[in-house]
Design goal:
heterodimer, A: mainly alpha, 4 strands, B: about 100 residues, four-stranded antiparallel beta sheet, three-stranded antiparallel beta sheet, 3 helices
């Protein structure tokens, strides 16, 4: 018998909010045969008090199906562009081969951080008691692995043509200037989950991210490197989810308990300063390494920190949060940072895996315009002197090793906030040993956690202690050259990877392959 | 005392420059009277003092099909401000005294 079937109305589609709630709230449970505190053993020791994880608001409610769908679309677009770039020999369209050195800095100094972020967010994604926080962290862990991969794929193409790109992970674990980013992230990863997420999601990926990505990606666009632009913007779209996670995390923690405020403030102070010191490398990239310059470091700092960051901290003022300590020092330094950094790398070019050079006269003119109070008086004379030396065939090379700051591990070339003619030295004695710092910011960080920083693996100390040679190297053998052996330990292709740009293999190849001059007119 | 009020802190959204975002930018300009659009190589940035709203319906009308606001992720570069997200609107704003 046929019974007429009354068609049922299709169920109303779930709203974004309900859909996401089912995914995130619905998947957690109170454990019954192990104590919750045992299952989540790391989310209380930092002193952060969370009374109600359900108060967590998910600003970007991306469910797994949406995540795979949209990330998949981004990947297809990205790799299509990378393929086209490779097939079209896009690497020869950059302004000149000096630009490639920014990619060397990126691949060895930034891409490994993406991998560390992947590990760090996986850690956090295991340790938070709240389900939605865990899911957001887990998605971010996948995003960060994606970033490591897309950067490796994109920049590996340049490795076919240019030096210094052949072994970024080996270099990252050993090379002196790369311990700056490495120690930064390891500091975060060896902290607890709340500090990690405040440091990376908020302080790095919200407050300071634009100062890392905008310069590199705009620099790439201005200099004809469409492949890097593509992965940069594609990664940044993931970053906007990360940024919202960072802001949400900080607000959530601050709203949960007033006792959390001073803890968070301390972390904001620490991680602002550590992040700012890390960005030293970006400042010199912007002002000296891009043949076509986007904007000066000082302008970028004004736009992205002083204005954007200012707006952000105005917003957080209602929780009792203030601007990070020493932000005014960063403002004072903005007219000097890039010049002091580049001058140092020029000194130690023979020990780096990227080239350096004296800026052209036209570039010095740009620098003088952008830095009217400092460039001509403090820095031009150095570069002109070095140019003279170079023209005489006596290119300057610093024969010793720089002193490093115990905390940020950057060579101590920073100058006193109120006196650019004096190197800024700070020191403290802890358990009968003297430690050195580049600034009050780093000294304060040490003072709050000395047991952490006395364990720092400082590349220069390690070299002098004889720990930076390949196994089987004999320092007592006649003709032993310590620097050459260290560069071998670093995995450098000695004679190709570092040193002066003019006359380098990169520069000679560039002219031979493209017919264009080593330095674009 | 001067009666000049300080401009509210701006929020911004930045997109990759391509055909899809042309309509998104147009929609944002239509829905935000004080929008300021800046164009850079491969990127377009829209700033608004205080509050910026992106409406699903406005974009959908411009492109001639139903639009899911989550599609913004494909072309999004960067963002600032507190975020409120619903099926129909994405709002960026600062909470200021």
């Amino acid at each position: 018998m046929n019974m007429p079937i009354t068609p049922q109305k299709p169920a109303k589609k779930l709203s974004l909010k309900d859909n996401y709630n089912l995914l995130t709230r619905g998947l957690g449970w109170e454990t019954s045969y192990q104590d919750m505190d045992k299952v989540f053993a790391q989310d209380k020791f930092e002193g952060i008090k969370i009374h109600d994880w359900d108060k967590w608001e998910d600003p970007f409610r991306l469910t797994m199906d949406a995540y795979w769908k949209y990330q998949g679309e981004k990947e297809k677009k990205l790799y299509a562009i990378v393929d086209a770039f490779q097939q079209n020999n896009g690497q020869f369209n950059v302004t000149d081969a000096r630009y490639i050195n920014t990619l060397k800095l990126f691949l060895t100094g930034v891409s490994p951080l993406e991998y560390q972020a992947h590990r760090g967010f996986a850690m956090v994604g295991r340790n938070f008691r709240g389900t939605s926080a865990r899911i957001a962290a887990q998605m971010q862990a996948i995003d960060e692995l994606r970033h490591a991969q897309t950067q490796a794929h994109t920049i590996s193409h340049y490795n076919k043509f240019f030096s210094g790109l052949h072994d970024p992970t080996h270099m990252f674990d050993r090379v002196w200037y790369l311990s700056v980013p490495k120690s930064y992230f390891e500091d975060a990863m060896s902290a607890g989950p709340f500090e990690f997420i405040t440091a990376i999601s908020f302080s790095f990926e919200y407050v300071l991210t634009n100062l890392l990505f905008m310069p590199f990606m705009s620099g790439a666009a201005y200099n004809g490197d469409m492949a890097t632009v593509t992965f940069g913007f594609s990664a940044q779209s993931d970053e906007s989810r990360h940024m919202t996670l960072g802001l949400e995390v900080v607000k959530f923690i601050l709203e949960q308990d007033p006792d959390n405020v001073p803890i968070v403030q301390k972390w904001l102070d620490k991680w602002f300063w550590r992040g700012y010191r890390l960005l030293t490398l970006v400042s010199m990239m912007m002002d000296y390494m891009l043949p076509k310059k986007v904007m000066s470091w000082a302008e970028a700092w004004e736009m992205y920190f002083e204005q954007n960051g200012g707006a952000l901290f105005n917003d957080l003022a209602r929780y009792g949060i203030r601007m990070p300590k020493y932000h005014e020092v960063a403002s004072k330094e903005k007219h000097r940072l890039s010049h002091e950094a580049w001058a140092t790398f020029y000194n130690f070019s023979h020990a780096a895996a990227f080239h350096t050079w004296v800026p052209e006269e036209s570039e010095m003119k740009w620098l003088a315009e952008k830095y009217p109070t400092t460039f001509d008086s403090l820095y031009r004379p150095r570069f002109e002197h070095w140019r003279e030396q170079q023209q005489k065939g006596e290119r300057f090379s610093n024969g010793t090793l720089p002193m490093l700051c115990q905390v940020c591990q950057v060579p101590m070339f920073f100058t006193e906030p109120d006196d650019p003619t004096k190197i800024c030295y700070r020191e403290t004695t802890y358990r009968d040993e003297k430690f050195h710092f580049c600034s009050d910011g780093c000294k304060d960080i040490f003072g709050n956690e000395p047991e952490k920083y006395v364990q720092a693996w400082l590349p220069v100390h390690q070299i002098y202690q004889g720990n930076c040679f390949r196994p089987g190297t004999d320092p007592t053998a006649p003709g032993f050259e310590p620097l050459a052996e260290v560069l071998q330990y670093y995995g450098f292709h000695v004679g190709e990877d570092g040193g002066e740009y003019l006359g380098s293999l990169d520069a000679r190849n560039w002219t031979q392959w493209t017919g264009k001059p080593a330095v674009a007119e | 005392m001067s009666a000049v009020s300080k401009e509210k802190d701006r929020v911004f959204v930045a997109f990759q420059t391509n055909d899809d975002t042309r309509s998104i930018v147009e929609a944002i300009e239509a829905d935000n009277a004080e929008a300021i659009v800046s164009r850079y190589p491969a990127m377009v940035k829209i700033e608004v003092p205080g509050r910026l709203v992106i409406r699903r319906e406005t974009i959908g009308d411009l492109i001639g099909r139903a639009y899911d606001l989550r599609e913004l992720h494909i072309n999004l570069i960067s963002i600032s401000g507190n975020i409120e997200e619903s099926d129909d609107e994405l709002v960026l704003h600062w909470n200021q005294h």
